[in-house]
């Protein structure tokens, strides 16, 4: 029985131990949902990506330690980086992923990786007052998108100093919450932080999918289509964004920090059906 390869990648970072770590597990054939969730819980990272060959590309799913999510930027970036780095995809070829959010594409752009993602526009549903109360800071603007709330604060200092009540936020927020402001430094256009305690993530280090909503918000506020965001978590990370109609192009860097093997026999017969892509 072939062991499963699992790769840990720091996404949205050019150096190890920055950005957002994601585990990438390469499967052939896919395993069942309970096993995927168990592996993600074992990895205990913000997201674990599972991918396997499908047609001319790869199927891709993302799991936090507690739930599957419909869209994840940093684990998609990590997946593309892993495919090229492990020799499973020609370095000149784009990575094409079949996901719950449709077909997503990744490509090399010099030392960066580009991602083609859906633009996340505001919905008509308001952000619950309990969510804003749990943040505990004056709010300039708030709206919901299909995958997260966007809450604008008055300054970068307010974003960096924010200490939300995570227990209350977990009870109040069915989605993640992206807290943002204009950037104080001239080399960034906006800053953000992201909280999703209801999904097992108190604070996400760098959240690519949230930038699909942040790009729409700040594009309207600033009158720009190309911007650079900085996610001001403890690890921190830079995300370049480019509005393209109903799509957003995200650009980030990535570095592999760990390569290992996952014992397939330990999880019983379900795990035993999965084997490594070779």
Can you give a write-up of this model?
By secondary structure, the chain is an alpha+beta fold. It folds into two domains: 4-118 and 254-272, Diaminopimelate Epimerase, Chain A, domain 1 (Roll), CATH 3.10.310.10; 129-244, Roll (Diaminopimelate Epimerase, Chain A, domain 1), CATH 3.10.310. Helices cover 23% and strands 40% of the residues. It is built from seven helices and 17 strands. The protein has a 17-stranded mixed β-sheet that branches. The longest helix is centred in the C-terminal third of the chain and has 15 residues, at 208-222.
How are the elements arranged and paired?
Layout: E1 4-11, E2 20-26, H1 33-43, E3 47-54, E4 57-63, E5 68-69, H2 73-85, E6 95-99, E7 102-109, E8 112-118, H3 129-135, E9 139-144, E10 148-153, H4 156-161, H5 166-172, E11 176-182, E12 190-196, E13 201-204, H6 208-222, E14 226-231, E15 237-244, E16 247-252, E17 254-262, H7 269-272
Parallel strand pairs: 2-3, 4-6, 10-11, 12-14
Antiparallel strand pairs: 1-2, 1-17, 3-4, 4-5, 6-7, 7-8, 8-16, 9-10, 11-12, 12-13, 14-15, 15-16
**Residues in helices, as a percent range:** 10-25%
The description of the largest β-sheet is: 17 strands, mixed
- CATH class category name of the largest domain: Alpha Beta
**N- to C-terminal distance:** 13 Å
The named CATH superfamily of the largest domain: Diaminopimelate Epimerase, Chain A, domain 1
Oligomer status: single chain
CATH architecture of the largest domain: Roll
Query: How many beta strands in the DSSP annotation?
Result: 17
Segments where pLDDT lies below 50 for 5+ residues? 265-278
Could you spell the SSE succession in H and E letters?
Answer: EEHEEEHEEEHEEHHEEEHEEEEH
Report the portion of residues in β strands: 35-45%
Determine Rg (CA atoms, Å): 18 Å
Which outline best applies?
globular
Total of domains? 2
Mean pLDDT: 92
Tally of individual helices: 7
Return the structural class: alpha+beta
CATH topology group of the largest domain: Diaminopimelate Epimerase, Chain A, domain 1
